[in-house]
Amino acid sequence: MSPISSKPLAISVLESKTRSIAEICLSVSYASMLSDGQQAADFLKVLYPTVKASGLKTEIACCDGSGWEQQRERLDGLEAAGAEYTLGLVTAHGYSSPPSTPFDTTGKVWETEW
Predict the structure, then answer these.
(1) Which of 11, 22, 30, 38 has the fewest CB atoms within 10 Å, measured from its CB?
(2) Dmax of the chain from CA atoms?
């Protein structure tokens, strides 16, 4: 994985979902990172088997794009990299672009912040 940011990834647990990568399309003055769908896929292909091997029933929620269309781009990259199977939940905000058309996924989708 070629890093765009040297800052560590933030991982938080929401009940049975692990938010592995959040707002990967947003660069701000506080800790942030930029990542495309391929880079997210590289990370998730390591995180997913690690979570499964733990014995927990935790699923991965990704990637809280700052807007619906920004998340669509990340999801397209994850799908192209063959990593959609790692996702328990596709997450997106509505700040930079509101929810419009559904994502092309058979997975669950959650609009996390408006």
Answers:
(1) 30
(2) 37
Domain assignments of the chain as residue spans, ordered by start = 12-113
Specify the range with the lowest mean pLDDT, choosing from 14-18, 27-31, 101-105.
14-18
Distance, CA of 57 to CA of 80 (rounded, Å): 26
* Range in 14-23, 57-66, 78-87 the model is least confident about: 14-23
**What sign has the CA pseudo-torsion 44, 49, 50, 52?**
positive
pTM: 0.74
**Residue 87 burial (C-beta neighbours within 10 Å; 0-12, 13-18, 19+):** buried
Q: What is the mean pLDDT of residues 13-19?
A: 49
Quick one: 6 exposed, middle or buried, by C-beta within 10 A (0-12, 13-18, 19+)? exposed
Query: At residue 78, what is the residue type?
Result: L
70 has pLDDT over 50: yes
Query: Which amino acid, 18?
Result: T
